[in-house]
Amino acid sequence: MSASRASPYTNRNVLALATPMIVSNVTVPLLGLVDTAVMGHLDSPRYLAAVAIGATIFSFIFMGLNFLRMGTTGLAAQARGANDAGDVRTVLAQAVLIALGMAAVLIVLQNPVGRLAMWLLAPEPDVLGAARIYYDVRIWAAPAALTNFALVGWFIGMQNTRAPLYLMLVTNLTNIALSVLLVVGLGYRTGGVAAASVIAEFAGLAFGGWLVHRELSGFGGRLEWPSVLHPDRLRRIFSVNANLLLRTLSLMFVFGFVTAQGARQGAAILAANAILLQFQFFMAYALDGFAHAAEALVGRALGEKNDQGFREAVRLSLIWSAAVALLFALFYAIAGRPLIALLTGQQDLRALAAVFLPWMVVSPLVSFWSFLFDGVFVGATWAREMRNTMIVSTFLVFLPTFYLTQALGLGNHGLWLAFVIFMISRAVTMGGTYLRLAARAPG
Predict the structure, then answer these.
(1) Is residue 61, in this structure, part of any structural domain at all?
(2) Which of 75, 78, 226, 306 is the most exposed place for a label (fewest CB within 10 A)?
(3) Same domain, residue pair 363 and 288
(4) Could you give the CA distance from residue 270 to residue 261 in angstroms, rounded to a whole number?
(5) Same domain for 286 and 406?
(6) Is residue 2 part of a domain?
(7) Residue 1 in domain
(8) How far apart are CA 135 and CA 385, in angstroms?
């Protein structure tokens, strides 16, 4: 393939792929703010607490199953790069089948899963009933929510990041409108917020199905079920997804551990860390956009067996990620204290969070490497290597570093130091693995 004719490996294309994903990510915290607002204006705080409990449960479940998106992206991007219309359709069909299968398992096991989740979170008795109503309703969103993960991953692999933006906008704006209608307009409580999420996910799925039809109508080919169900092809997608699941669970362990250790140091430290984690998540929303661009372009280059395109995709994504990370570091250094003030009106909590703010200034500079490499590894379907580097960084670096800092009496500063070193470890281990694998990747 000639790199000189309409090459997709350009700054313009990286931005064209990244920008819609950044915008779509912004709608996620917006939805949370609206749900908080409508619940917060009811006659009892228990409704807001119940939604917080329920949302935490589904955030954990859906975050753990987000590997459906990542696993689909790399395979779809490689199929597109190879211009294999049949494989493009096969990847999508397999991803949807896996999503529906996992949703069926969740629905069948909804009662034991719900009881376990409520036991672990241990809400107060007056909150438990309302939280359980939320859970019992929202669990029925699983088929649509998980299938939407697969659709988003497939669209990114097809280098169509506008489609995920439109899908997310339809889903989240529908959710917001229905939450206001059902709670404020019709007087429903936690069940109304949950029902809004269920209806919105299915609305997004219907819209996403139309987008898929439009995408495929211009790509040609047809779906062959023997190919979808072929053991070798199934092993390929199951292997990728299984490794990504273990990688995701390790990452979730780190963030859960940070929260739990903050709680052990008292409510004030827990609250301060929660504020600072919002800084980390907000930065991740932006940098993930460039990781998504890397996923699509790296996968395409591998499908094309285009060595120059592969390296150019990594180089350009790295440059943009580094530039945005530097801007975040400067932004947090300059505006960090005013941002903390926006998130809490408690003077003592503002002062405490400011003590640990320097860690958030450092974090973008060490985090963007692993975010970028996540995109590269997803596009290349190096899922086993992603799993291995994450496990090493979590259990052989992060945990020992944390316990060493506590032995030295560093307290919460030690916790954040361990987190930063965890991100550095991810960058080093993934960077070394990239250098080893990139030499032979396109061929």
Answers:
(1) yes
(2) 226
(3) yes
(4) 8
(5) yes
(6) no
(7) no
(8) 35
Whether the Cβ atoms of residue 440 and residue 419 lie closer than 8 Å to each other: no
Q: Within this chain, do residues 13 and 153 fall inside the same structural domain, yes or no?
A: yes
Q: Give exposure, 212-245, as e/b (b: 16+ Cβ within 10 Å).
A: beebbeeeeeeeeeeebeeeebeebbeebbebbb
Q: What does the alpha-carbon distance between residue 48 and residue 441 come to, in Å, rounded to a whole number?
A: 50
Neighbours of 38 (CB within 10 A): 22
**Structural domain ending residue among the three candidates 164, 198, 229:** 229
Same domain, 245 and 183: no
Tokens of 431: 């960077």
Number of domain units in the chain: 2
Question: Which residue, 229, 249, 272, sits at the end of a domain?
Answer: 229
Listed in sequence order, the residues at least 6 apart from 168 whose beta carbon sits closer than 8 Å to its beta carbon are: 24, 27, 28, 152, 204
| Residue 266: its H or E element | none
| Residue 111 and residue 194 in one domain | yes
Kindly provide the residue ranges of all beta strands, DSSP E only, lying in 246-357, ordered along the sequence: none
- Same domain assignment for residues 216 and 243: no
Same domain, 210 and 278: no
H-only helix segments in 344-441: 347-380, 383-391, 399-407, 411-438
Domain that residue 182 falls in: 7-229
Q: Answer yes or no: do 117 and 42 share one domain.
A: yes
Tokens 């809004």 belong to residue:
196
Tokens encoding 265:
């140091």
Residue 40 domain-assigned (yes or no):
yes
pTM value?
0.85
pLDDT tens for the 443 residues of the chain, in order: 444 456 788 888 888 888 888 887 766 666 665 666 676 666 666 777 777 777 778 878 887 888 888 889 989 999 888 888 888 999 999 999 999 999 999 999 999 999 988 887 777 787 788 888 888 999 999 999 999 999 999 999 998 989 999 998 999 889 889 988 888 778 787 888 889 989 999 999 999 999 999 999 877 778 888 888 888 888 888 888 899 999 999 998 998 888 888 878 887 888 888 888 888 888 888 888 899 999 999 999 998 889 999 999 999 999 999 999 999 999 999 999 998 888 777 788 889 999 999 999 999 999 999 999 999 999 999 999 999 999 999 999 999 999 999 999 999 999 999 999 999 999 999 999 999 998 776 54
CA angle, 200 then 162 then 99, to 5°: 50
SS3 content of the chain, % helix, strand, coil (to 5): 85, 0, 15
Helix crossing, 125-138 with 45-64: angle to 10°? 50
- Are 142 and 175 a contacting pair, CB within 8 Å? no
Tokens of 339: 């941002």
